[in-house]
């Protein structure tokens, strides 16, 4: 290919990719812009033009209102979700990394059988066990309690096997040496295994946190009390209310999305790494 | 993992291992395996929480009734229709995106991030935003259609096209995820193969079909299987945008199970539906694995 031809291709590609990027970003852009409009404006500018995409009067009114409304305590929903997501992430990292350590490095009877048992749970879709899980939580008296949102979500077999891949790379000789020096297995786990798998732990942490932040069906089933609700369900129920302003809904959607986008931009590398590992090894 | 199997185990090591596995094991038994058996158990019962939590053994009646149930069959059909459209279209788009951002050129990182961004937006938020975008009177999409002189379309209120509205929303949200998976697969293909092909005078199209696609088979298998499972289980967009309407036209299986279990409190019947669905999904996954495995060398 000639040089001029190559540049031509590059320019066409760049234009195409930019147009595509605009289309992909449009819904998010539209969400943020609608949240900055007054109530009347959303219904006013329905023709293609400048004000279709940008507010005529910029306002933060919607944001102030969603946080001030005591009947729909939006700040509360965010805190609830943060608490649940952070708890599941922290407890999940501990429980899953302990199991991963045992599977990756320790020798014990029935290891293969246990491994197979753990793996077999990956076939069971959550939707198939949602009903008995609900009954169980009900019998435990956990309905409308954060325990119902946290405890069943802690163990994540996919996460265990993500960590197993990392732990497997630590040479057994290092562990034996530590044993010789008199270190117990818990010490070895905490001071050798965990530090060696920090990137994997961050990856797993980010994925868990984002999954929990997005949780919808399970909270919808086990939380009926307004004050205990999580953010995603709150937004969805916001939008099914009659006569609620779309500006407020979009403000709620923006507030719940932008922190996550920020976290993602910072930790993108780890998140993407997790997808790649699951894809390549899966 | 244990390739050589020692004859004797260190007692302390065994104790440590079982201790480390215990929390995960107990949680798994309590919240996954036990519910799985209970789901099967309940599915043979008439179990309704409204009628004083009465449970009555009725054998296969739930399954028999389900097979006659028009709305269950319709929901199965909708789930499969959704999957049949989403799997090829989304996979093609994701692969296309991956090929676009595969090279190393200025700004490629920016485009990768932008195309991936919708993955981070939650399903509830995405569905809510698309509901506004699709709105007939003041949504952005119709404003754009009008701008091009096209008639307005009521995306979510017409039984014929409501599902298409949901499909577009789902593809928008998921394509970036699979783009990254394809990108990883593409990076595993040795560059020399392309160079050799170019020397032999193979064109772009030829290289794509003779090198890229065959070597992506493993990645493709992963993408197709995961997309199938996700697509068949679709729930949140249906719940938020249409609530299964109009006239049940977008009611999927998981939506049907949810409504039956938690609106009508008919847990036995819903469990049977969920279990039947689980078996169908499992069979499909196994068939897909076989299909992709048959002529792939590992």
Average residue pLDDT of chain A:
88
How far the N terminus sits from the C terminus of chain A, by CA atoms, comes to: 39 Å
Largest sheet of chain B: 2 strands, antiparallel
Largest sheet of chain A: none
CATH class of the largest domain in chain A: Mainly Alpha
Number of helices of chain A: 15
Provide the CATH superfamily of the largest domain in chain A: MetI-like
Cα-based radius of gyration of chain A, to the nearest Å: 24 Å
Question: In one word, what is the shape of chain A?
Answer: globular
Helix content of chain B: over 70%
What is the chains' assembly state? heterodimer
Describe the protein's architecture and organization:
The complex is a heterodimer of chains A (282) and B (298). Chain A is mainly α and 282 residues long. Chain A has helices at 3-35, 39-44, 50-53, 61-68, 74-105, 111-120, 126-139, 146-150, 157-167, 172-180, 185-196, 198-213, 217-222, 231-240, 246-281. Chain A folds into two domains: 3-59, no CATH class; 69-281, MetI-like (MetI-like fold), CATH 1.10.3720. Chain A has 15 helices and no strands. In chain A, helix 12 runs antiparallel to helix 15. Chain B has 13 helices and two strands, in the order H-E-E-H-H-H-H-H-H-H-H-H-H-H-H. The model of chain B has no long low-confidence stretch (mean pLDDT 88). By secondary structure, chain B is mostly helical. The two termini of chain B are 19 Å apart. Chain B has helices at residues 11-42, 61-68, 70-100, 108-120, 123-134, 140-147, 162-187, 191-199, 204-215, 217-232, 236-242, 253-262, 267-293; strands spanning 45-48, 54-57.
């Amino acid at each position: 290919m000639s040089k001029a031809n190559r540049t031509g291709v590059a320019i066409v590609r760049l234009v195409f990719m930019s147009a595509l990027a605009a289309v992909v970003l449009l819904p998010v852009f539209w969400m943020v812009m609608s949240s900055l409009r007054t109530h009347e404006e959303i219904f006013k500018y329905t023709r293609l033009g400048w004000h279709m995409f940008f507010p005529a009067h910029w306002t933060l009114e919607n944001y102030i209102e969603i946080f001030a409304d005591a009947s729909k305590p939006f700040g509360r929903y965010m805190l609830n979700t943060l608490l649940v997501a952070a708890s599941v992430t922290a407890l999940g990292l501990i429980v899953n990394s302990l199991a991963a350590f045992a599977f990756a490095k320790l020798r014990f009877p029935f290891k293969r059988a246990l491994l197979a048992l753990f793996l077999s749970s990956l076939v069971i879709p959550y939707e198939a066990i949602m009903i008995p899980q609900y009954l169980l939580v009900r019998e435990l008296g956990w309905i409308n309690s954060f325990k119902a949102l946290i405890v069943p979500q802690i163990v994540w077999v996919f996460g265990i096997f993500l960590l197993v891949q990392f732990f497997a790379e630590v040479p057994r000789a290092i562990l034996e040496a530590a044993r010789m020096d008199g270190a117990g297995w818990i010490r070895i786990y905490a001071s050798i295994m965990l530090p060696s798998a920090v990137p994997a732990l961050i990856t797993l942490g980010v994925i868990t946190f984002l999954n929990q932040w997005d949780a919808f069906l399970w909270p919808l089933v086990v939380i009926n009390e307004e004050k205990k609700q999580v953010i995603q369900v709150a937004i969805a129920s916001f939008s099914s209310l009659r006569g609620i302003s779309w500006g407020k809904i979009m403000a709620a959607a923006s507030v719940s999305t932008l922190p996550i986008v920020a976290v993602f931009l910072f930790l993108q590398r780890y998140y993407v790494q997790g997808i790649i590992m699951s894809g390549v090894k899966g | 993992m244990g390739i050589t199997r020692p004859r004797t185990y260190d007692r302390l090591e065994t104790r440590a291992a079982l201790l480390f596995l215990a929390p995960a094991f107990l949680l798994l038994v309590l919240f996954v395996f036990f519910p799985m058996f209970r789901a099967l158990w309940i599915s043979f019962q008439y179990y309704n929480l409204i009628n004083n939590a009465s449970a009555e053994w009725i054998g296969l009646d739930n399954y028999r009734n389900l097979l006659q149930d028009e709305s269950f069959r319709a929901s199965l059909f909708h789930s499969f229709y959704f999957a049949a459209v989403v799997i090829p279209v989304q996979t093609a788009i994701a692969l296309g995106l991956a090929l676009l951002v595969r090279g190393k050129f200025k700004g490629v990182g920016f485009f990768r991030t932008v195309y991936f961004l919708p993955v981070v937006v939650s399903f509830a938020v995405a569905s809510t935003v698309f509901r506004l975008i699709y709105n007939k009177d003041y949504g952005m999409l119709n404003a754009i259609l009008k701008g091009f002189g096209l008639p307005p379309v009521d995306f979510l209120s017409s039984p014929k096209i409501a599902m298409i509205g949901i499909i577009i929303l789902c593809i928008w949200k998921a394509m970036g995820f699979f783009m990254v998976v394809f990108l990883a697969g593409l990076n595993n293909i040795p560059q020399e193969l392309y160079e050799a092909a170019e020397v032999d005078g193979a064109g772009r199209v030829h290289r794509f079909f003779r090198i890229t696609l065959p070597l992506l088979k493993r990645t493709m298998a992963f993408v197709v299987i995961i997309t199938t499972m996700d697509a068949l289980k679709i729930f949140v967009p249906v719940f938020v945008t249409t609530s299964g309407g109009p006239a049940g036209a977008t009611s999927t299986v998981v939506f049907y199970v949810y409504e039956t279990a938690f609106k009508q409190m008919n847990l036995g019947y819903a469990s049977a539906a969920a279990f039947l669905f689980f078996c169908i999904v499992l069979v499909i996954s196994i068939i897909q694995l076989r299909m992709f495995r048959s002529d792939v060398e590992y």
